[in-house]
Specification:
- The structure is a single chain.
- This protein is mostly helical.
- It contains 4 helices and no strands.
- The longest helix is centred in the last third of the chain and has 27 residues, at 99-125.
- It starts with 6 loop residues before the first helix and ends with a helix.
- The model has no long low-confidence stretch (mean pLDDT 94).
Length: 126
């Protein structure tokens, strides 16, 4: 019988899946739907769209209690922070950008750092 999943990890798994699905939908609209999103930063948009699939996969892995999901959540957190740093470089270099991108990257980075910390702590406790 598998170990009981903590309530916090259950919530984190649900957040990851929902956040991933929303990310995929919004990214697809921006990339393929002909929606004018303003001054998008293409590498950020593509990263977030592709990462949405990893969010869903990680959420499912956390829900199922897999051994790989905590490390994938850490990888997502690190990759998101790296893309955020590159975005900040782009902004600092005078590149065009939207304020909502700044907010989204702060939110994404914060959420994935929190999920990774929680997932790794729960893995150690198991």
């Amino acid at each position: 019988m598998p170990a009981r999943r903590s309530r916090a990890l259950t919530i984190a798994a649900a957040v990851a899946v929902i956040f991933g699905l929303l990310t995929i939908v919004s990214g697809a609209r921006a990339l393929f739907g002909g929606v004018d999103m303003g001054a998008v930063v293409p590498f950020v948009l593509w990263f977030n769209f592709v990462a949405g699939f990893a969010y869903v996969l990680t959420g499912i892995g956390l829900w199922r209690g897999t051994n790989w999901a905590p490390m994938l959540s850490l990888g997502i957190a690190a990759a998101t922070a790296a893309v955020f740093a590159a975005f900040l470089w782009h902004v600092g270099s005078g590149g065009a950008w939207e304020i909502r991108t700044m907010g989204a990257m702060i939110l994404r980075t914060g959420i994935w750092i929190a999920i990774a910390i929680l997932a790794l702590r729960c893995k150690k406790a198991a």
